[in-house]
Structures are given as C-alpha cells and as structure tokens.
Automatic annotation (TrEMBL), chain A:
Alphabetical UniProt keywords: ATP-binding, Nucleotide-binding
GO molecular function, one term: ATP binding
Record has Nucleotide-binding as a keyword: yes
Protein name: ATP-binding cassette domain-containing protein
Superkingdom of source: Bacteria
Xref: Pfam families: ABC_tran
Domain named ABC transporter: residues: 2-241
SUPFAM superfamilies given in the database record: P-loop containing nucleoside triphosphate hydrolases
SMART domains with a match to the protein in the record: AAA
Any one cellular-component term (Gene Ontology): plasma membrane
From TrEMBL, chain B:
Record-annotated membrane-spanning stretches: 28-50, 183-207, 242-260, 314-335
GO-annotated biological processes: cell division
UniProt key word Transferase: no
Keywords from the named record: Membrane, Transmembrane, Transmembrane helix
Protein name, per record: ABC transporter permease
C-alpha cells in the first residue's frame, strides 16, 4: 500500500515546494527535512506518526499525500511508483485518499456543507448522492445544525471536525491526518479517534500524526517515530534505528 | 448513525471554492479587451479598405487609360498612320486605337458623361448642357487594357502626330503606385492586428495570474483533493474567455458607428458609387482615373438608406462579429496556457 525506501526531501528544490522557499536563507534551502526514510504500511493498517514538533511529520505526510515529490529515494503508493507515474495517474491516486491538514484548509467562502461536499463534487458524483451523504456525514460528526455556516463562524473544534468530515466523506482507502485532534478537548478527541478507528476497521489504511501521548496510549497501534527528519522507530518492524 | 437529512439548497452549479468571480473581477479585463477590440476594428477597417482599393485598381479589368483629344472635329494631320480614310482627329485616333492589341474595351464618352464629369466644376443640372457644348471640350476616350497588357511606348507620339495635343493618361503608373501603397497599408493593418492580439493575450495572462495568486490556497486545495489540471484551467478559461468575449462585443459595438462614418467617407474610393450621390462623379474624379469607370455607368442606387450597417462593406460586416469571437478565444486559450503552466509547479 505504502512503501518508502530511502526517501529524502530537501526543500528549496524548485517545483517540490512552490513559492515559500524564496523567503528562506541559503542554509534553509539546503536543508533536508526528511533523510533516508524507509518503511512500509500494508493495506488496512493503522499507524501513529510520532515525533517532536519540527521532526518532519507534516513533511512526511506531505510526501505521502503527493503534495511534494521525494528529492531522492523510491515511493510506491497503491502499487504505483509515484515518481514514474504520469501526472494523470497522480490525480487518480489523490482521489483515493483523504487528508486532514494540520492547518485544516477549509475554504472560507464556502459553507460547511460545500466544503465537505468538495471532494465528492470534484469526483463528479451525482448531486443527490452528494446531498445525502454529506448531510449524513455532518450529522454523524455533530455538525448537522451548522450546514450552512461558514468555517469562520465555527469554533476551532467544529472546524477540525469539518476538515475531518471532508477527508472521510468519500470513505477513502487511505486516510492521512495531521494532528487532527489538536483543537479538540479530550472527550471530543477520543470520539474522533473512534471515528478514524472505525474507518480503519472498515478497511481504510490510516496514518495519524500526533503528539498527544494520551491518545497514543488509549488506542494501541504501531507507530512511526521521526526525529529531525530521520525515522527512528518503526513499531511494526520493532526495529530501532539509531 | 444518521437521521433523515435536512438538505441545504441545491446549488445550481457545484461550488468548488475557486471563487473566480472575485478572483478575476468583471471590470478591468473587459474594458481593456474592449479597447483592444476597438483598435482591432480600426485596423480591420484599414485592411478591408486597402483591400478594396487594391482590387479596384488591379482587379480583372486591368489598367484604365484615358485619351484626351483636343479639337476632335478638326481635320487629322494627313499622312499619319490612319491612312487616307482618316477624316477628323477623333476618327483618326479611334482608328489607331482600334488596331491596337491588348485593349479590352474602348469607349468614347458622350456629351452627357462629359457633362456629369464636369458638373462639379461648372455646377448646374441638365440646363448647363447647352453652355457646355459651346465650350471647346476635348473628346475623351476611355480604354480598358486586358490584364497584364500595356500600351506600346510609342503610342502617345503616334497619336500626337495625328491629332496634335492628344494626351494619353496611362493609369498603369498610378495603379502600380496605388497597389504598392495599398499593400503596405494592409501590411500595417496586419501588424496592428497582431500587436493588438498580443497585447490582449498579455492582459489576459496578467489578469489570470493575478487571479491565480488571489485564489492560490483554493487552487492548491482542489489540486490536492484530486482536481485535474484541465478542470482548474477550464474553470479559469471559461471566466476569462467570457470576460474577453464581453469586452470584444463592447469594442465592436463602439467601433460600429465610427466605421460606418469612415466607410461613408471612403465610399467613393472603394465602391465608386457614393451611396447617396446622384451625380456619381466627385471632385476627385478628374484626378483619380479609376473613378471614371463608374461615370455614366451603374449610378449609385439600390442601397437601403438609413441603417448604418449598409454603409459598411461586406468583408467588414463579416469581420466585425468575429472580433468578439477572436477576443473570447484569445481569453480562453491564454487562460488555459497560463493556468496549466502555473499548475506544473505543483507535483
Ligand atoms: N514549507 C516549508 N518551508 C520551509 N521549511 C519548512 C517547510 N515546511 C516545513 N519546514 C521545515 O521542515 C522541518 C519539519 O517540519 P514539519 O514537517 O512541519 O514538522 P512537524 O510536522 O513534525 O512539526 C521544520 O524544521 C520546518 O521548519
Ligand atoms: Mg506538523
């Protein structure tokens, strides 16, 4: 399902990171935010992605989510070699995953409903089905009464739930979530993790980046641990990399 | 795990958050494109006008030659080429011309045609006829050469010997120069059109880029959610194509009265028969030989009066509506290319 071998990601290397690197110094441009990362995640597995802030969790998820191409190394996703795949194929791969971004990225002009409906509409799913499934999803996640609100009118926790709803509304085979419980209180965080676990039990592969130890202890699962861009623990292999 | 869903309003068009109405506002682009379309219309009018002139002077009929014979009824100089039969000077000249190869038609202007020709200078209608006859008018013979043919260089001298004072006004020199002029006018018009199209494309590209920058977050998001490049490019191209189409329509509409007025002014040169002029001949008739063809011929009738569309030559009538289509297409294509080039930066 996911196989990385010796993947590194250097920022400031042209097309991989559009825009932003211009504002960074020379040193930063040479910086490798991921170095020699290798692991596999089989279909249907659940992984915690752990590591201190700045360890490279978001960067790794960015690679997995096809938001950045590895600078070196091999990355295979759904059996497809990502670097060799044509652009159209990448689009197809993106449609098979749901992503919860650390910064949520809800579109402020759209209602909660339209934000959550976005992946379905981009996939050209018939509107009646979109209406039914988005409503059901929002009810289930506790936003059934805020369908028409703009993201700006929601609390941090509600926004996070909307972002999660958008990521899971297509029941994607792969779910990548970057600190999805960051602005939630403990009971809400547990409830959401239960949703993600349920999705995992229905067959989706799920990777959740977090530094919430409480959650990790509550939901036992193998973890991948990053430290300064290197993979230092792969719970599934039970191998410690120095 | 769910209750009967209370559905929000069904959107007429799926909201995809690209927010292009705000990203590419509807003022600047259409105005600039309208100005470009207006300029293009002027350039087109120039090209069409120049083309009309060119066909007029070089077209099928070949060059026109005017032969003026003063004192046509006086006796021809004896011993000239016409032989013993030649009586009057005009007969001698006619006889010589009749023997020339390469002449498609030969026409001696009658008194009425001369009258019309001179009317602008002498004034009056019909009644002036008698006075004119009293004047010592030269005879005027109008020749049409077969295309490609030219007069023998010795002809003017030969005619002058038969009928002293005879002038041969060969329009070939005229038409060559006019042709060169019209061709360069057309080339200028073509260059102007190219420039205007390039500037229009550039403006659309700038507006599209500004729109992309404004909606960058949304574009990156839909890209990450699996939108294809074509989808995003199509959304932008529809918007800019539409705005450029509107601009083109405005520009063409604004150009319409201007062009109608221009072509009314130019009508005598391009059609020979001024839409409203009963006399047909204009003050320039004497100096622009080509216009003579029309004198006494199909005098200008038949055109519907009033509508300004009637004042426009047909090619311009066809070109003008295609102007908005062209601007729309430029808008669409440029946006497609701009968006796709930008999206290439995303993996
Ligand atoms: N867009 C970016 N431009 C420059 N540096 C970045 C960018 N994203 C991440 N980084 C750097 O990469 C390193 C890893 O960051 P990140 O992946 O966000 O870590 P984490 O998610 O584990 O907190 C950090 O040092 C961060 O400064
Ligand atoms: Mg992070």
């Amino acid at each position: 399902m996911i196989r990385l071998s010796d993947v590194s990601l250097r920022i400031g290397n042209g097309p991989n990171w559009p825009g932003r690197t211009r504002f960074l110094g020379r040193a930063a441009q040479r910086r490798e935010v991921l170095q020699g990362v290798s692991f596999t995640v089989p279909a249907g597995a659940f992984r915690w992605l752990l590591g201190a802030s700045g360890a490279g969790k978001s960067s790794l998820l960015r690679v997995l989510q096809l938001g950045a191409m590895p600078t070196t190394g091999e990355f295979e996703l759904f059996g497809t070699s990502v670097q060799r795949a044509p652009r159209r194929q990448l689009v197809r791969l993106r449609r098979r995953m749901g992503v919860v971004f650390q910064d949520l990225r809800l579109l402020p002009e759209l209602s909660v409903f339209d934000n959550v409906a976005l992946p379905m509409r981009l996939a050209q799913i018939a509107e009646p089905r979109v209406q039914a499934e988005v409503s059901e999803m929002l009810n289930w996640i506790g936003l059934g009464r805020r369908l028409l609100a703009r993201p700006g009118e929601l609390s941090g926790g509600e926004q996070q739930r909307a972002a999660i709803a958008r990521a899971v509304v297509l029941r994607p085979p792969l779910l990548l979530a970057d600190e999805p419980t960051g602005s939630l209180d403990a009971p809400q965080a547990l409830r959401l993790m239960e949703l993600l676990m349920e999705l995992n039990q229905l067959g989706s592969t799920v990777i959740v980046a977090t530094h919430n130890d409480h959650l990790v202890r509550h939901f036992q699962a193998p973890s991948l641990r990053l430290d300064r861009g290197r993979l230092v623990e792969d719970g599934a292999r039970a191998v410690l990399v120095p | 795990m769910s209750e009967a869903p209370r559905l929000p309003r069904a959107p007429s068009r799926p909201a995809d958050g690209l927010g292009l109405r705000r990203a590419i506002p509807d003022r600047m682009l259409p105005s600039v494109v309208a100005a470009m379309a207006f300029l293009a219309a002027l350039a087109l009018a120039g090209a069409v006008g120049a083309h009309a002139l060119a066909t007029r002077w070089s077209g099928g009929a070949g060059a026109i030659v005017i032969v003026q014979v003063p004192e046509p009824l006086a006796a021809a100089t004896p011993g000239a080429a016409g032989g013993a039969a030649a009586g009057t000077r005009i007969d001698a000249v006619q006889a010589t011309l009749a023997g020339m190869p390469g002449i498609a038609s030969r026409h001696l202007l009658d008194a009425r045609e001369l009258d019309q020709l001179l009317q602008p200078w002498l004034g009056g209608h019909g009644g002036a006829h008698a006075d004119l006859l009293a004047l010592p008018l030269p005879a005027v013979v109008q020749l049409r050469l077969q295309s490609g043919a030219s007069l023998p260089p010795a002809l003017p001298d030969a005619l002058d010997r038969q009928a002293p004072g005879t002038l041969v006004e060969d329009s070939a020199a005229w038409s060559d120069r006019l042709l060169a002029l019209t061709y360069s006018l057309q080339a200028c018009a073509g260059l102007a059109l190219l420039t205007v199209a390039a500037v229009a494309g550039w403006v659309v590209a700038l507006a599209t880029r500004a729109g992309i920058v404004r909606r960058r977050g949304a574009i990156e998001l839909v890209h990450s959610l699996g939108a294809t490049d074509s989808y995003v490019a199509q959304r932008f191209a529809r918007r800019t194509g539409f705005l450029a189409l509107v601009g083109g329509i405005i520009g063409a509409l604004v150009a319409l009265p201007v062009l109608a007025q221009l072509s009314r002014l130019a009508a005598p040169f391009s059609t020979g028969a001024a839409a409203g002029g009963a006399a047909g001949a204009t003050p320039l008739a004497g100096t622009l030989p080509g216009v003579l063809v029309q004198v006494g011929g199909g005098g200008g009738g038949g055109l519907l009066p009033g509508l300004m569309l009637d004042a426009l030559p047909l090619p311009l009538l066809v070109a003008l509506p295609s102007l908005p289509l062209a601007t729309g297409l430029i808008g669409w294509l440029t946006a497609q290319a701009t968006v796709r080039a930008w999206l290439r930066r995303l993996p």
